[in-house]
Amino acid sequence: MEEIRLAKYLAMCGLFSRRKWEKIIQSGEIRVNDIKIIDLSFKVNKNNRVDYDGIILNPEKKIVIALNKPIGYLSTVKDKFGRKTVLDLVKDFNSRMYPVGRLDYNSRGLLFIANDGDFAYKITHPKFQVQKIYEVLINKNISDNDLAKIAKGVIVDGRRVVPVKVKVLKRRDGKSLIMINIIEGRKRIIRKLFQILRYKVIDLKRVQIGNYRLGKLKEGSFRILKNSEIDNLINYHN
Question: Do domains 4-56 and 131-209 have the same CATH topology?
């Protein structure tokens, strides 16, 4: 392995995301060859001894899973109230896995689970502008005026949300199925957006992240991504 930045090396070890490792480095909790390192530009290679809290860290085999998350699962590693999490759906993996991004408890669809912090960083950090596509069923027929408002941008929690694309897929039985393509990753952002316009979200399904589509993957099922698919995702430009 060539020399790489310490935070990237640590992210490859699978325990935390790259952003969290950067904070841990700055707090002085990482030692390289028994020397405390706080410099984020510091580089290491496979011959270095990297220590965190007495644990020697080595890069793991990168694993990225595409999961079709059902309703009723939390997008977290564990829950203090004992509720089901998405990791309950991928129990066969011994590697330290964690969700990449989020889907709320009552939402479903595509979610990545990985042991690769660098992958998580590139998929979730706003600077990479990774698009997510959702199909949203709301309780009323949406007006053309409100559709135009969404396209122009709606203020949610003090910040404007401007979709890359929004369109009506179907109007039927007094409801609307809407496709919305956004870069935003804030918690419950789509539900809040429609609530502001006086609509209730009945169903929310994420069908695509970057250039990866959910496709025919059955709800509750998952598949392991090939290395080429991971590379395509992190190198994808919208």
Answer: no
